[in-house]
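Table S2 (text version). Query chain:
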Amino acid sequence: MLLRSIIRNDEQGSTLMNIAVTLGVIAILSAIAVPSLKSMNNPLNDASVMTTHFLKLTRARAISETKALRVSPLSTAKLKVEQGTTCGGTFTPHANLALEMPEGANLTDTTWNICFTPRGLADKNIVFSIQNAEGKLKKIEIALGGGTRTQ
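Corresponding structure-token output:
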């Protein structure tokens, strides 16, 4: 008896007004969200973050595998890793480490390389740049201690 007094027979769905208000709220939220999502697509920032993390991962792998790992560009869009016993010795390709830059970002110079010793130290201090299609640059520096910095 109590349940019948709460539920009325004439309330059996949404009205046109409810649907219109709901669609209006969704449209307003979409108009706010789309510009925010577009700014998240930045190949230059993505490439610099990916490269920095890749270098940190390679350094950590050199320490954990107790091998010398050398990172060098394979092209303007790819980095390769080679392994050896020391940074001055011979190197063979490392099967599990490689990086491909996101589309729209490329290395400006492909003549560099950096070797991380089994203790995680870099064999030299280098700076290289990543450039997007609009010509903007991000510089990545690798210090002798193995740390990286993006400028």
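Notes on Table S2: Helices lie at 2-6, 16-38, 43-65. The chain has one domain: 43-150.
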